[in-house]
Automatic annotation (TrEMBL):
Required cofactor names: Zn(2+)
UniProt entry tagged with the keyword Nucleotidyltransferase: no
Alphabetical UniProt keywords: Carboxypeptidase, Hydrolase, Metal-binding, Protease, Zinc
Lineage of the organism: Eukaryota, Metazoa, Ecdysozoa, Arthropoda, Hexapoda
Full protein name: Peptidase M14 domain-containing protein
GO molecular function, one term: metallocarboxypeptidase activity
GO CC aspect terms: extracellular space
Species assigned in the record: Allacma fusca
Residues of the full protein shown: 114 to 420 of 434
Residues annotated as catalytic: 269
Residue ranges occupied by any Peptidase M14 domain in the UniProt entry: 8-303
Organism superkingdom: Eukaryota
Family: Belongs to the peptidase M14 family.
GO process annotations (BP): proteolysis
Length: 307
């Protein structure tokens, strides 16, 4: 069995056990290690696919890039579990239409450290050579697209340290290679962060650079956002990160669109808007999972009409 309950936040080992449980129970699920973290943990990816072959359009989902954003892995596992369980066959169409690649915790070292050391750790756990300050690299400043150009720091002590070079981190390196390997299949890239209730559209690196198809991305996202909001009335704002937050280069969403060429790339900042922030009570996991699942399902359904 497994211990996953979505009634509390789980350790990485529980998440890995739950994934292997699903794999053992359902032939649709495969679990693969896409690489190792700095501390040699396996970065696991679930592949949910009704067909053996890999020619179907696919959707990528990841969570836990920033260690302290606990609602992200909780929501991503909730979504994967819903898809696999497919209660009353409500997601039959989504399983017929797409293969799903899901990485619940990209930054597993950081995530574990938020349970054992510092609850509000953000970065990876790699050494930076500077022993007098916080180690680690911000994995969402480490991707090789406009790397280091804005909203990131060259100071290893900073929480937004971009790293010594693009893809210096094993976590971003491993994940980017897997995405490139799947690029012809991938039609949508979704990365989950927290908090602020934002549906972010590329690009994040510059106030002035919007992709040529920005309006198309907005239109598709509006479907997802509406379904999410309809669930419990949770309000989201939509726009680019520079419009709603700040400029920041080296994010995975920008790279997925700008380099991997995945047209529909989004970053969601989940609940809440700051009352609890990163310390969102576990009682909000299920409602957050539910509304976000509805958003993702509506998003995937409208994407399906475009393929
Ligand atoms: O700063 C970030 O990496 C994200 N916000 S968070 O509070 N979760 O740290 C926003 C990333 C938006 N995307 C890009 N700037 N590319
Ligand atoms: Zn984040």
């Amino acid at each position: 069995g497994h211990r996953m309950t979505w009634q509390k936040y789980h350790r990485y080992a529980d998440i890995v056990n739950w994934a292997t449980f699903l794999r053992d129970r359902d032939p649709m699920v495969k679990v693969e290690s896409i690489g190792k973290t700095h501390e040699k943990r396996d970065i696991i990816m679930l592949k949910i696919s009704k067909s053996g072959g890999g020619s179907k359009p696919a959707i990528w989902i990841d969570g836990g890039m920033h260690a302290r954003e606990w609602i992200s892995p909780a929501t991503v596992t909730y979504i994967a579990n819903k898809l696999v369980t497919n209660n009353k066959r409500q997601y039959d169409d989504l399983l017929e239409m797409f293969d799903w690649y899901i990485v619940p915790v990209v930054n597993a070292d950081g995530y574990e450290f938020t349970h054992t050391g510092d609850r509000f750790w953000r970065k990876t756990r790699s050494g930076t050579g500077n022993i007098y300050c916080k180690k680690g690299v911000d994995p969402n400043r480490n991707w090789d697209f406009k790397w280091g150009s804005s909203g990131s720091s060259k100071d290893p002590c900073s929480d937004i340290y971009a790293g010594p070079r693009a893809f210096s981190e094993s976590e971003t390196q491993s994940m980017s290679q897997k995405i490139l390997q799947l690029r012809s299949q991938l039609k949508m890239y979704l990365t989950f962060h927290s908090y602020s209730q934002l549906w972010l559209i590329p690009y994040g690196y510059s106030k002035y650079e919007k992709p040529a198809d920005y309006n198309e991305l907005v239109r598709l996202a509006s479907q997802g956002k509406a379904a999410l909001e309809r669930t419990y009335g949770t309000r989201y704002q939509m726009g680019t990160a520079p419009d709603l937050l700040y400029e920041a280069a080296g994010g995975s969403d920008d790279w997925a669109k700008g380099v991997a060429g995945i047209k529909y790339s989004y970053c969601l900042e989940l609940r809440d808007t700051g009352r609890y922030g990163f310390a969102l009570p576990a009682s909000q996991i299920v409602p957050t999972g539910e509304e976000t699942m509805n958003g993702v399902a509506a998003l995937a359904r409208s994407l399906a009409t475009k393929l």
